[in-house]
Structures are given as structure tokens and as C-alpha cells.
Amino acid sequence: MVFGAGQIGPRLADALAARGHAVRVVRRSARPVGEHEVVSGDARDAAFARRASEGGAALYHCMNPSAYRGRAWEEELPAMMEALIDAALANDARLVVLDNLYAYGPTEGARTEATRLAASGRKGRVRARCAQMLERARDARGLRYVVGRAGDFFGPDADEALVSPAAVQGIAAGARPLALGDPDAPHAFSFTDDVVQALARLGDAPDVEGEVFHLPVHVVSPRELYARIGARFGVTARPRRLGRLVLWLLWPFASLFRELLETLYQWDRPFLVDDARFRARFPDVGVTLEEAIDGTVAA
């Protein structure tokens, strides 16, 4: 059962079907997702989530809130998590959670799975709260779960990411891509197809319950990533920087810029992530950066 049909859910459904699993996609709307069964409804409704999950051996939580705003995250994410915890327990299913890295907040050095959750912003604190909900449900109710935390997406279907297919098309046409913060700061990016394959493996693996894994990342500066993409098209991609001052000047005109200020620490300094634990456990998952760029350009 794949909850969510955004950047990862549809490709994950395809990957699970290719592994021989019967797949049901649960999403807000009734729009089709390939050839998969689709159930539409509000996953914050615990009764609906339980019904939608009937017969499932694993529930994949790939949902995001309806808007990139702190209030939406506070109102929606914990309710989604509580409903899926209840659904997993009711159906004796494993809950596989796709998470991001916001819960760590600003840290020195590379984040590992043992790094303390010390989020400084609203959205990060909500992510940390959801992580604690999982731990409490494991300890008090016997929940079986595993978490995969990914970096910022790039690749096929990464439509809401900074390095989106639209940005890649813009580079090919000679446009200057946007870079938040410092375009030369190393940053942890996750290739969407790697995320999909990693989640599929976490759903099947027998020895990962109760664990958190950092999914495969490529640590590269936005400038270098853009340059490598541009080289595929024979163009020079020169990023246009959006720094703190620019975001402060723009935020009265668009709430997105205010929200981006909250997580600018991820972009104005090195944002490092250690994925060695996942790669040691699943050494056959994850492509090289050059292969990921090939897949991004071809998307």
C-alpha cells in the first residue's frame, strides 16, 4: 500500500509491482496512477486509512502536507502519521516511512542516524515529533516500522525540487538555474530512482524494523551539479543565487520565500549526510552521480 502519489509514490508503486507485489495507491484525488488500483480519501482519517490498508503487508508513507507552510505541516503531518500507525497495527503490517532531514536542524559535520534531532524551525520540529510518535508506538504498541531519510531530490518526477525537470529543461534552453544560499556549498542530494529502490528494499528486508537509515545521497555543490547537467547539453549553467537578503526582501510578496528562510541553513553552508550505514546493508542500491545525472537529463 503506497500512501502518496507525488514525486516518489507512483515510481515506488511501479518498483513494487516489478518485484511481484500487488500494489494499491492511496491518494487525495481519484486520478489514476498507471495501472495500479487507486483508493482516494483523506489519510488523516484513521478509519479510512485502516480500510484502505486492508490486506497490506507493508504500508509506505510517502505523503507530504498540502502546502509548504509551517501551519499546514503542524496540522497535517502528525495526523497522517497517527492514522498510518493505527492502520499498520490494525493490519499487522510494516510501516515504511519516507522522511527528510529537517528534524536534525543545523549541525556541525555530517549527519548520521545517531545525530540528535535538534530542529530549529517549525517544519523540522514537526518531523522530529513524528519520529517520536513512531518510537512511542513501537515501545507501547509493538509497531513494526522502518524510516528512510532522503536528501533533496533530483531526477525523474522531482517536480517540487530545486533541481526539477523544469530546471533541467531551462538549463538546456540557456536559462540560469536558481541556487539557494551558497551555490558552492556541498549539499546532500538524493536521486529519485535511488530513493524508490531503497524504500522497496526496506519494505522487504527482514532485519530493519525499528531502524532509521539515510538513503543514498550524492554530496555535491549546486554549482557543480548544474555544471554537470549543463555539460550534457553543451551549455554553461551559471546559477542565480537567492541569498538571505533577497529572501527577506521577497517574503512579503510570497509566503514561499518566508518558508525557505527557515531552512536556509541547509543551503548557505555545507549540508552533509553520511549514508554509509544504508550502503553497507544494501550495497547493490544506488547509482553513481554520473548515472544519476544521465537519468535526470533523460527524464
CATH topology descriptor of the domain at 2-155 and 187-216: Rossmann fold
Spans where pLDDT lies below 50 across 5 or more residues: none
Order of helices and strands: EHEEHEHEHEEHEEHEEHEHHHH
Residues in helix, %: 40-55%
Number of strands: 12
Biggest sheet: strand arrangement:
3-2-1-4-5-6-10
Overall 3D form: globular
Rg, alpha carbons: 19 Å
**Average pLDDT taken over every residue:** 96
**Quick one: CATH class of the domain at 2-155 and 187-216?**
Alpha Beta
Query: CATH-wise, what's the superfamily of the domain at 2-155 and 187-216?
Result: NAD(P)-binding Rossmann-like Domain
User: What is the terminal-to-terminal distance?
Assistant: 25 Å
Structural class: alpha/beta
Question: Can you give a write-up of this model?
Answer:
With 299 residues, this protein is an alpha/beta fold. The protein has a domain at 2-155 and 187-216: Rossmann fold, CATH 3.40.50. Helices cover 41% and strands 15% of the residues. The protein has helices spanning 9-18, 46-52, 70-90, 122-141, 165-172, 192-204, 222-233, 244-250, 255-262, 276-281, 289-298, and strands at 2-3, 24-27, 37-40, 58-61, 94-99, 145-149, 152-154, 178-180, 187-191, 211-214, 218-220, 240-242. It has a 7-stranded parallel sheet, with helices on both faces. Strands 7-9-11 form a 3-stranded mixed sheet. It has a two-stranded parallel ribbon with strand order 8-12. The protein is globular. The mean pLDDT is 96.
